[in-house]
């Protein structure tokens, strides 16, 4: 009897571990093509956290500390060919005609046509994700033709929204656009994605520039399930506990709710003549002579207001 119970326990543990692995495989398994967390906070490199080496080069876009989840990239748009901000990924997997998922967070207030993501450019582009002048998302083929209709949801309201594009096949209505965790639009996308270069926000000779924030950008080479989309979206959802500065301290408990000084993001406190004073920083990062990176709600004069907010 004891042996039987032991076997049952072992079997139960195996089952639990299997499902735990399956649930988390979308973050760490072979299906993850690329993942740009945009958490560097400085520099011109956007690292691919999937470890597949698809790092991006930042051109003009700037780091902000109040992203959806910590830092994010802010794209300033553009008014002419080649004048906007973008990220260039020079080497990425061709997805072909296989299933895929592309999901990310955006925040914008603009009412112009903005390009969130291209794979390929010019005559060689295969897939384009747009935010149109009405603030609605749509998926286009390489010729710019709408292939998974325009969403009903509007996302240019100045708050973070989670977007997911999923191809479950190349048949009718097998491509879905999710907005904030729910299917908003279906369509048919048969494009063969053969391009091995990709761009966010536009590219060097382009004109339809995205203006706003982009954060937590994932590409998978399979169609994620509904629960997996929910997991990606809720992993670091800004609409749960309000944290305006993205520093990991809820606004209700933060002694400086609009300037980062918590465990997820900090701000340099230095002499007023220092160029680093007020700049974003991370743990153990130098803030110049006599300066420090405030990440622990420092309040030297004990006035209830964090050092980063004191004038």
Annotate the secondary structure layout.
Elements: H1 2-28, E1 32-36, E2 45-46, E3 56-59, E4 62-64, E5 72-76, E6 86-89, E7 100-107, E8 114-119, E9 127-131, E10 137-141, E11 146-148, E12 161-167, E13 175-179, E14 182-187, E15 198-200, E16 211-220, H2 226-234, E17 266-269, E18 280-281, E19 292-294
Antiparallel strand pairs: 1-16, 2-3, 3-6, 4-5, 5-16, 6-15, 7-12, 7-16, 8-9, 8-15, 9-10, 10-11, 12-13, 13-14, 17-18, 17-19
How would you characterize this protein structure?
Helix content is 12%, strand content 29%. It is of the alpha+beta class and 311 residues long. The protein has 2 domains: 29-234, Jelly Rolls; 245-311, no CATH class. The strands form 3 sheets. Strands 1, 4, 5, 7, 12, 13, 14 and 16 form an 8-stranded antiparallel beta sheet that branches. Strands 2-3-6-15-8-9-10-11 form an 8-stranded antiparallel beta sheet, with no helix packed on it. A hairpin with a 7-residue loop joins β4 and β5 (72-76). The protein is elongated, with a radius of gyration of 22 Å.
- Outline the low-pLDDT stretches: 1-26
**Beta-strand percentage range:** 25-35%
Total count of helical runs of at least 4 residues: 2
Structural class by sheet pairing and helices: alpha+beta
Residues in helix, %: 10-25%
| Average pLDDT over all residues | 84
CATH architecture term of the largest domain: Sandwich
Radius of gyration: 22 Å
Work out the number of β strands: 19
Instruction: Quote the CATH topology of the largest domain.
Output: Jelly Rolls
Biggest sheet overview: 8 strands, antiparallel
N-to-C series of helices and strands: HEEEEEEEEEEEEEEEEHEEE
Distance separating the two termini? 72 Å
The CATH class of the largest domain turns out to be Mainly Beta
């Amino acid at each position: 009897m004891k042996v039987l119970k032991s076997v049952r326990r072992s079997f139960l543990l195996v089952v639990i571990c299997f499902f735990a692995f399956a649930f988390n495989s979308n973050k760490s398994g072979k299906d993850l093509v690329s993942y740009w967390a945009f958490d560097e906070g400085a520099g011109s490199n956007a690292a691919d956290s999937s470890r597949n080496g698809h790092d991006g080069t930042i051109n003009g876009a700037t780091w902000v500390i109040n992203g959806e989840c910590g830092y994010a990239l802010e794209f300033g748009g553009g008014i002419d060919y080649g004048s906007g901000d973008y990220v260039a990924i020079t080497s990425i997997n061709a997805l072909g005609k296989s299933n895929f998922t592309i999901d990310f967070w955006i925040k914008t207030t603009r009412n112009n046509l903005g390009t969130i993501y291209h794979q390929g450019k010019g005559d060689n582009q295969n897939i384009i994700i747009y935010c149109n002048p009405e603030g609605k998302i749509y998926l286009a083929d390489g010729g710019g033709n709408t292939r998974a209709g325009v969403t009903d949801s509007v996302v240019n309201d100045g708050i973070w929204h989670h977007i997911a594009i999923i191809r479950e096949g190349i048949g009718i209505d097998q491509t879905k656009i999710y907005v904030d965790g729910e299917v908003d639009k279906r369509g048919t996308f048969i494009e063969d994605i053969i391009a091995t270069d990709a761009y966010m926000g536009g590219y060097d000779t382009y004109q339809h520039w995205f203006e706003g924030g982009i954060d937590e950008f994932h590409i998978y080479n399979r169609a994620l399930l509904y629960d997996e989309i929910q997991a990606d979206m809720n992993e670091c959802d800004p609409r749960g506990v309000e944290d305006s500065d993205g520093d990991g301290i809820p606004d209700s408990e933060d002694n400086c709710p609009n300037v980062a000084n918590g465990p997820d993001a900090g701000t340099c406190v230095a002499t007023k003549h220092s160029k680093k004073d007020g700049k974003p920083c991370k743990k153990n990062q130098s803030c110049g002579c006599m300066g420090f990176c405030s990440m622990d709600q420092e309040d030297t004069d004990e006035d209830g207001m964090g050092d980063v907010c004191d004038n």
